[in-house]
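Suppose you are handed only two things: the residues of a chain and a line of SMILES describing copper (II) ion. What would the bound structure be? This form records exactly that question and the answer produced for it, so the two can be stored side by side and reused later without any lookup.

QUESTION INPUTS
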Amino acid sequence: MSSGSTMVDQGARDLGSLRLRGLLTLVTGIVLIVAAVFALTAGVGAIWHKVTATPAIAATSATAAATASSSAVSLKLSINPAPLGGVKGPDGLVHDAFVPGALTMTAGTNYDVTIYNYDTQSHAWMLPELNIDAMVPAGSASSPSVTHFTITPKSAGTFQWFCPLPCDKWGMAHNGFMRGYLTVKS
Ligand SMILES: [Cu+2]
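ANSWER OUTPUT
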């Protein structure tokens, strides 16, 4: 009785073990298939994304470059140009100044701005509303430093530009010297 029971038990255990192994194999197979499908989908998704995104970026850059080179307006600014090496204020003294100090632009037009600094001190031309923060290195009367940047004002308005570096205190406080207005027309 006891031995027969053992044999039956053994048979049942073998059968159970076989079923468990089969079930494990099936589960493992399903997991592997799901993983493979997921990996393939993600891979194809990444390739599709790359293929569609790349030409869009390239086209935008090409258009921007073509527009900038074909229709940019050159604008020249000088800091402390000859013969005075600055601009005479109503106080009778010559002050640090960007020349011209009052600027006019047309909305939607690209401007290539070049600043020649004849001063032996560095300055900056800042216009936060148009995201311009141009550092201007020191130069000299005989060899000005040259700083270049571009502006494309999008909408009409009057914007204050200024030099944020501590330079000519009077000039920093007066329009037409180390600060001034940019008028953008539509
Ligand atoms: Cu300055």
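WHAT STANDS OUT: Helices lie at 2-71, 169-172. Residues 96, 123, 163, 165, 167, 178 surround copper (II) ion (CB under 6 Å).
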